[in-house]
């Protein structure tokens, strides 16, 4: 059984077509977001979910609508027939389909080592251990939480000199903050940081985000889904920033607080030491914080006219074009 | 207000343009392997 036979099987065609459908979706979403100048992260994230969710079902749904979609008669009239590329052998010895194997394999390994294993470890750790509570939160934290729309959010202080602030979701949402953070931040900065974490605990209640994560795991081989999901996570941070600012009314304070988690010289130091970046994830984290700071300082335009019409038209465009991509 | 509405409506004219460009691009990409095959062989 060679690579061509595997790609021509039902599961092989599913993998190949979902990859090409994701490529179309990500390109169209990117173009429309840019053309319509959409900067509201809540709307952008909905568009990104199209890239993650649509290709999962597109292949079986199209075949249900038209059972002869996979046959030669349809492929000849299709806009794009992936089998033409996959059956192509460069200099009669090097099949183009071989390019896809390392791409899918590499993406699967990234997901395994950067997401599946860390998430499983984290869940097991949460089940086994109790909070490393050092002391109860000071009254300033309690009064801030009372000012914010944070119903039933527990607060815990960890003995750590580093600035640590984590929102824990689940049946009993909690916010963990370190003693180092309490010493570092002013009252307003602490309020901005806590408001951001409270926003996370509120949004993490939605089962839809878990569904998206599960679908994204189902598409473990798909590099486009990997990137789209990570960008949606980055949008989630921006959404929580906006929620925090709407409660505190101080975007610059939140931007200043974020800068403390990402010093200006963080990236430069990594290079000046002559060392490679500790990890790609760490680099991505720094870049994500920088983009959030830039956005808060720029006061982006949040208004989007007719967002649902734009979303529906993008959905239809992707759906119709992908039907003719086999 | 009317100008704003008109501008909004014009925004939606991007869609057929984008679809047209996509269709042309996909068609070119669809025929490219056949051309490559002809050239290489």
Can you give a write-up of this model?
The complex is a heterodimer of chains A (326) and B (41). In chain A, strand 5 (165-168) and strand 6 form a beta hairpin. In chain A, the strands form 2 sheets. In chain A, strands 3-4-6-5 form a 4-stranded mixed sheet. Chain A has a two-stranded antiparallel ribbon with strand order 1-2. Chain A has helices spanning 3-8, 10-35, 41-65, 72-77, 82-86, 97-128, 139-147, 179-184, 187-203, 207-218, 223-248, 251-261, 266-272, 280-298, 307-323; strands at residues 89-90, 94-95, 133-135, 154-158, 165-168, 174-178. Chain A has one domain (3-323). The relative contact order of chain A is 0.15. Chain A is of the alpha+beta class. The two termini of chain A are 22 Å apart. Chain A is built from 15 helices and 6 strands. Chain B is mainly alpha-helical and 41 residues long. The longest helix of chain B has 27 residues, at 14-40. Chain B is rod-shaped, with a radius of gyration of 18 Å. Chain B starts with a helix and ends with a helix. The interface between A and B is medium-sized, with 27 and 19 residues.
């Amino acid at each position: 059984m060679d690579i061509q036979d595997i790609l021509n099987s039902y599961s092989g065609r599913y993998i190949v077509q979902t990859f090409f459908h994701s490529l179309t979706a990500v390109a169209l979403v990117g173009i429309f977001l840019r053309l319509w100048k959409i900067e509201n992260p809540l709307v952008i994230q909905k568009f990104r979910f199209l890239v993650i969710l649509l290709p999962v079902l597109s292949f079986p749904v199209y075949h249900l609508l038209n059972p002869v979609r996979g046959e030669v008669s349809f492929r000849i009239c299709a806009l794009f027939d992936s089998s033409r590329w996959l059956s192509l052998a460069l200099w009669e010895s090097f099949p183009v389909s071989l390019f896809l194997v390392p791409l899918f394999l590499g993406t699967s390994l990234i997901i395994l080592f950067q997401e599946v294993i860390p998430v499983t470890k984290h869940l097991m750790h949460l089940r086994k251990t109790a909070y490393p509570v050092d002391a109860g939160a000071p009254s300033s934290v309690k009064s801030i939480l009372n000012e914010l729309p944070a119903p039933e959010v527990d607060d815990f202080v960890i003995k750590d000199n580093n600035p640590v602030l984590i929102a824990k979701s689940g049946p009993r949402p909690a916010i963990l903050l370190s003693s180092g953070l309490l010493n570092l931040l002013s009252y307003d900065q602490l309020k901005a940081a806590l408001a951001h974490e409270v926003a996370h605990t509120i949004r993490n209640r939605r089962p839809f985000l878990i569904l998206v994560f599960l679908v994204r795991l189902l598409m473990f081989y798909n590099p486009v889904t990997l990137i789209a999901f990570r960008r949606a996570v980055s949008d989630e941070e921006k959404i929580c920033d906006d929620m925090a600012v709407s409660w505190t009314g101080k975007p610059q304070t939140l931007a200043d607080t974020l800068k403390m988690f990402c010093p200006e010289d963080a990236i430069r130091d990594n290079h000046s030491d002559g060392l490679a970046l500790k990890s790609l994830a760490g680099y991505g984290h720094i870049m994500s914080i920088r983009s959030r700071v830039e956005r808060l300082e720029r006061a982006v335009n949040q208004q989007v006219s007719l967002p649902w019409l734009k979303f529906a038209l993008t959905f239809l465009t992707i759906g119709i074009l992908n039907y003719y991509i086999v | 207000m009317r100008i704003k509405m008109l501008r909004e409506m014009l925004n939606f004219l991007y869609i057929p343009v984008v679809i047209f460009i996509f269709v042309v691009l996909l068609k070119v990409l669809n025929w490219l392997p056949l051309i490559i095959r002809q050239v290489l062989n």
